[in-house]
Write a structure and sequence with these properties.
The chain is α/β, with parallel strands linked by helices and 317 residues long. Helix content is 38%, strand content 18%. α2 (45-54) links the parallel β2 (35-38) and β3.
Length: 317
């Protein structure tokens, strides 16, 4: 059997990431450097360093931004408290929250208005979870995996709903929901699936590749939840080995011993240039036969954040 690469499609940038990164680029073009960004705009080392080189300054909190300056909120979303602190510091804000995350924020508010306890399935400390829970902190209980579900205490077991972080593993979330439903038989479902279309599609593609792969390489950063999930899904679905790398140069020679078929994909915050760098690296190792495995086509696009759209329109008059 000849050495080959099975290249996942879709992979890389989703519509929400593309929108957020372009928002920072357009803001730099329009207002000039520096532009402040609260947290990493998306979880990818290459993207962050590229934007820093253009004049973006990444901060942890709004109080690090000089009064009156522009701050962009990342694709992961922020809580109402973060919006309030920006207003109190007299900051101009551009909200680059992914519209699919915004949808979950609305669901939190709707469930909280019905006085429901909201079980938010997600990873503790993740920015998206913090922003989502911040919409109704008194109503939200974080559920990070199935451990501890039996200990969850709620005011009324008939008034409990679940929501999830958008970048989780579909399988892992379904397992957690099943365990929650066992504990709370009248558990209320969200009006629609919270796991983002791009996260699901990338997992579907890698599930098709994994059983055939001696090795799977996922391009992505360690703080990218959906990228980490792709490694886990690869191993669950039969890949003999799977690793997460930011750059092609991180691939270790010993990984390739006895390997005939390599699966390649990338997280939803990864620019395609990094995947192409990896394919060149693999070609140099004798893996020049690349077959694309297409799970489905993606055509979704999101418009620019409202605040930026207004200023771009005014500038182009």
């Amino acid at each position: 059997m000849s050495k080959r690469v099975l290249l996942a499609a879709p992979r890389g940038y989703c519509a929400g990431v593309d929108r957020a990164v372009v928002a920072v680029e357009k803001a730099l073009d329009l207002y000039g450097a520096p532009i402040y960004v609260r947290k990493e705009i998306v979880h990818n080392k290459h993207v962050v360093s590229t934007l820093e080189a253009r004049g973006a300054i990444f901060v942890s909190e709004n109080d690090e931004v000089p009064e009156g300056e522009t701050v962009i909120f990342s694709a992961h979303g922020v809580s109402p408290a973060v919006h309030q602190s920006a207003a109190s510091h007299n900051l101009k804000t551009i909200d680059a929250t992914c519209p699919l995350v915004t949808k979950v924020h609305y669901e939190v508010k709707r469930f909280a208005a019905q006085d429901l306890t909201i079980l938010l399935i997600g990873h503790e400390g993740h920015e998206e979870v913090e922003g989502t829970a911040g919409e109704a902190p008194e109503n939200v209980i974080l559920v990070d995996g199935t451990e501890g579900i039996s200990e969850i205490k709620v005011a009324d077991e008939n008034k409990v709903a679940w929501l999830s972080q958008t970048t989780l593993s579909v399988d892992e979330t379904l397992t957690t929901v099943a365990a929650l439903r066992k504990r709370f038989p009248n558990l209320i479902d969200p009006p629609s699936d919270d796991i983002c279309y791009a996260t699901q599609n990338r997992q579907v593609a890698i599930k098709q590749i994994a059983p055939q792969a001696d090795l799977v390489l996922i391009v992505g950063s360690v703080n990218s939840s959906n990228s980490v999930r792709l490694v886990e899904v690869s191993l669950e679905y039969g890949a003999k080995a799977a690793y997460l790398i930011d750059f092609a140069a991180e691939a270790k020679d010993e990984w390739f011993v006895g390997v005939e078929t390599i699966g390649v994909s990338s997280g939803a915050s990864v620019p395609e240039i990094l995947v192409q760098d990896l394919l060149k690296n693999l070609s140099d190792r004798g893996f020049s036969n690349v077959e694309t495995v297409t799970a489905m086509e993606e055509h979704l696009l999101f418009s620019m954040p409202t605040e930026l759209r207004k200023d771009l329109k005014a500038a182009n008059k």
